[in-house]
Design brief:
alpha/beta, 24 helices
Amino acid sequence: MLLKELSALASPLNDQKLDQLQQAASELSPQQLAWISGYFWGLSQTSVAGEAQPASLPVAAVASQPAGKLSIIYASQTGNAKGVAQALKEEADAAGIAVELFAAGDYKGKNLAKETHVIIIASTHGEGEAPDDAIELHEFLQSKKAPKLPNLEYAVIGLGDSSYEFFCQTAKDFDAYLSKLGAKPMLDRLDCDVDYDAPAATWRQQALDKVKETLVKADAQVVQLPVGQAAAAPSAYNKQSPFAASLLVSQKITGRDSGKDVRHVEIDLEGSGLTYQPGDALGVWYDNDATLAAAIIAKAGLNGEETVEVDGQSVTLLQALTHDYEITAANPQLVTRYAELSGSKKLAKLVDEKDKLREYAANTQVLDVLGEKKTALSAEQLVGLLRRLTPRLYSIASSQEEVGEEVHLTVGLVEYDKGDETRQGGASSYLAQRLEEGDTVKVFVEANNHFKLPADDNTPVIMIGPGTGIAPFRAFVQERDNREAEGKNWLFFGDRTFTDDFLYQVEWQKYLKSGIVHRLDVAFSRDQVEKVYVQHRLLEHAAEVWQWLQAGAHVYVCGDANRMAKDVHDALITIAEQQGQHSREQAEQYLNELRKSKRYQKDVY
């Protein structure tokens, strides 16, 4: 009422501006109002033309001057970049640096012109694409609207997997765009591989040292206004401190004649306090097969009793390879290093042909790379070839509303023959074969805010998940069932054969009969002469898919990134072209707009 009473007095504000001011003030605490009063007073002193800056400003006004701060922006798809950004902010706070943390989707690109110091932490999605949350910022920096940035100092760190062609591409893009706009790099960009913890920690310290050289935090006490909602308290268990859970079930759900071994896995979270939402992932820390570790050691001409240092501790080589290093999947760096150590002509030739090198590394295990040319290695040389062990992330296949203090996974055993021997995946064989029911498995929840059901339960959803890509959609349907959501659910599922590979068949038929799932279209590639996949089913029902999209449906794709996700994307473009009467360019822009509005989400690997 005070503002209304003041309006009766002589005032430079009209009634509309007074109403706006009263509405804004009603949402602020007394402390925040005090801060605002000083801030506005300071602005009034600097906005009068020709008037000198006052010698002394209120505390809040001093703090509002552009002395500079560090802004940290993260572009994250699965949460890794966010984790690095949060660690950087905590370290900046501890160092007394004025700092703000932003998700890329919450940051307005034009504000870069007001910044003095920016650090971007970026992951890369799909075929070198920016994460969904960073698309707008990524596009803005390429546009004519992007401001010149001669006063900005910046640094960029990328997270990626060097096995992929477009390694850390988003970070490389941000680095190039900022440089082109005139910003000055504080230090060289760091492109991190999958075992990024140690190099990222070192880089963060170097970056903060550079910031402190030029950025001095104002001595005045700053009362910060809240931005958005307070973050939820972090769980006691995370990637660095996983929960020791108990394996309840590891049950094969493919038929006896199937060419694949897919397991339904149930894990007990009782007492952990861990919570998750449909679309999130479960991180699983696993031990390697000790037999495989011994075979690799023997291939290097060692016996396993040699000692190596891991995180400051002296352990045997066998222990290190069982618990601390990745010994299944190869990678281009390992192949390149071993080519140099062994002198293998075959590997040396691969190193010179990058596409073939990536293909070879993706389809060859460590043991078989070492087998290309037997070479005696020291224990230090052997571990120097290997990446540190990292947890595997599995899409969660359950809704906590349905299963309580459990979490379910759908795990496909990676397995293939190599001559007379069988090769298996590290984590999948651990969960499917080496763990017994009741054994302990170390887990944590990895939130995925870019693969979430629509907030409005009336929104229709289209789910496309062949093979183990079905996992999150089991969680989606369980969740919508428990929430009694009215929105329609359309599931596309595909695999090899109806008889042996229809994952969770009984459950889907139950949901279809009860009306929870409104449409179910399946594609079993080997049940007829011509192979049929989910993208073919999409095109067969193009008119209905377009109708659902026009009605506001959200589209979700989960599974293989290399072929399936591309083929589904192309099918959706074709549907937009044919049904929406769009050109190819317009159809691509339509899907891009769906991604920006979070109506087209992918969880691919």
